[in-house]
Structure formats: C-alpha cells, structure tokens
Amino acid sequence: SSLIRLEQLCKSYTMGGQSFLALDHITLDVREGDFMAVVGPSGSGKSTLMNVLGCLDQPSSGTYYLDGVEVERLSDNKLATIRNQKIGFIFQQYHLLPKLRVIDNVELPLIYRGMSRRERRERTIEALQKVGLGDKLHHLPSQLSGGQQQRVAIARALAGQPPLLLADEPTGALDSRTSREVMALLQELGGEGNTIVLITHDPAVAAQARRVVRISDGRLTEEKGAVS
Ligand code: ADP
Ligand code: ADP
Q1: Contact (CB, 8 A) for 96 and 153
Q2: pLDDT tens readout for residues 26-70
Q3: What are the TM regions of this chain, as residue ranges (predicted)?
Q4: 200 lines ligand 1 (CB under 6 A)
C-alpha cells in the first residue's frame, strides 16, 4: 500500500512580483518498502520537495497523504507531531548535538514519544548495534569519523521505528569510500522493508536505490524501477 501519495502537488514562490512553480503538479506514489531516490541538479526543486515531504513546509496546492493522513493544511503543531512520529530524518551534516554522547543523541527524539526510559534505552542500543556502533555508546560525536557520525544519525532516525526514512544528501559530506559504506547500510535497511526516500544531486548515489525519479524544473519523471 502507499505510504506517500502526492496528487498534483505544487509549490510556488513569489519573487519581484512574479510567481513561479518550484514544484510543478507532482503526482507520486511511494509504497511501503520502497527505496526511492529523487535525483536532480541544483535548483531543480529537491530542497523544496524535501521540505514538503518532511512536513517542514506546506504545498501551495494539491494534496499530500502520508501514512493515510492528509497533511497539507494541518496546523504547525500537528505537523510537528507527524514529523516526530512518522519520519526519521537523515541530513548531509548529521545534525548531532556535540555535547551529548552518542547514546543520548539517539535517545533524544524518543523522549517526546512517551516511552518508558527502559524501552528508550533498549531501542537506542538496538539501533546503534544495527549500524555497527554498539561499542561507541559513550563517545562524543567529535570522537567519531564522518561516516560514523552519519551512522549515529541513521541510528537516531531508526530508533523511533518511523514508517518513513527521509535522507537529504546523506553522503554529501563524505569521501567516496565512506559514502559507499553509508549507501550499503541504507540498501541493507531498504532490503529489510524500511521505506526510504533519498534526495541527491549525484546520479551515482541515486543509482544505488531500487527506484529512481528525476526532478527537473520542479517536474518529476520516473527513471528506474517504478512499479505500475
Ligand atoms: P535544489 O534543492 O534542487 O537546489 P530548491 O528546491 O532549493 O532546489 O530550489 C528550486 C527553485 O526554487 C530554485 O529556482 C530556487 O532558487 C527557488 N527557491 C527555493 N527556495 C526559495 C524561496 N524560499 N524563495 C524563492 N525561491 C526559492
Ligand atoms: P540546498 O543547498 O539544500 O539546495 P539552497 O542553497 O538551494 O539549499 O537554499 C538554501 C535556503 O535558501 C533554503 O531555505 C531555500 O529555501 C532558500 N532559497 C533558495 N533559493 C532561494 C531564492 N532564490 N530566494 C530565496 N530563498 C531561496
């Protein structure tokens, strides 16, 4: 079934009295278990799409269903709740809190979930073991390599077991070998039934997803692996 459904979705920006469509009538279905990349050059609309999919920004028109909930026009409070419950974010710059130990960085988003401390700890440790960092629980982010920091961020995204993992240029700050390791981890997670949407400008990174859609001047076209 569909986890994400966009119907005729538009986002317009106004500049100097002129309005233009950064997202131009996008229709898209992402099924549970899909591992999909959105690829396109700078200025094509990736950040705008990421912000809408991530419930950080509202579309100008059209509809967006996420896990059965019609999210456009919800209040900012409701959007924040949906972000916390439904989406695990992975960013180019990791966005770890530098003064918190690895284990506390991963646990933090779970605190807003009303889980017992014991369950939070269990899920946190399980997620860190999953990404191969079970021996780094008490390190600070600065004591880890870039690839390890990104794996902490992936563990943080996984720990809440959200229906959607949304990764924005997750390899953008990494060298090519480390980048391959992080992509191998995402492929493994995709193979285990996680739904992953990966946004990237890099066709070589996108090619490692099972399905690829291209964005160009705010329009989407299927490139590889679509299921009809
Ligand atoms: P990408 O992430 O692929 O580089 P963006 O989504 O950032 O693309 O931008 C798509 C287009 O929308 C670009 O032409 C960009 O300049 C424009 N744009 C993005 N954000 C804004 C904004 N807040 N106001 C006006 N124009 C914007
Ligand atoms: P990215 O590196 O993720 O593509 P950008 O450099 O395109 O990000 O944009 C950085 C920020 O500036 C974003 O918040 C975007 O919405 C905003 N932005 C991008 N282009 C424009 C623009 N032409 N006018 C106003 N804001 C913009």
Answers
A1: yes
A2: 999 999 999 999 999 999 999 999 999 999 999 999 999 999 999
A3: none
A4: no
Q: What is the pTM of this model?
A: 0.90
More confident residue, 218 or 225: 218
| Closest C-alpha to ligand 1, atom 21 | 13
Mutate to test the pocket of ligand 1, among 9, 11, 13, 214 (most ligand atoms within 8 A of CB): 13
Instruction: Please give the helix or strand (H or E) that residue 193 lies within, else none.
Output: none
Query: What is residue 86's three-state secondary structure?
Result: helix
> To test the ligand 1 pocket, which listed residue (18, 23, 39, 48) has its Cβ within 8 A of the most ligand atoms?
48
Enumerate residues 6+ apart whose C-beta is below 8 A from 138.
Answer: 101, 102, 103
Do 167 and 198 contact (CB within 8 A), yes or no? yes
CA of 189 to the centre of ligand 2 (A): 30
11: Cβ below 6 Å to ligand 1? no
